[in-house]
Write the structure tokens for this entry.
Amino acid sequence: MKMKKMGKKTLTLKLINSKKRELYTIAKHYDMTHPIVVACSQDLDRLLNQYEGIDQYKHVI
């Protein structure tokens, strides 16, 4: 079970870093309020929330 969680955390971190790079690249070419930039930022927010939630309830029996 622990291996599965570690794998999920690692994968999520890779997705977060990839989305950060994508957001940085897009933001260089568009205004920060452009729908493309906002959508990418929201995707990153979802990934960050997912990452935070992976171990959130591990102490609950």
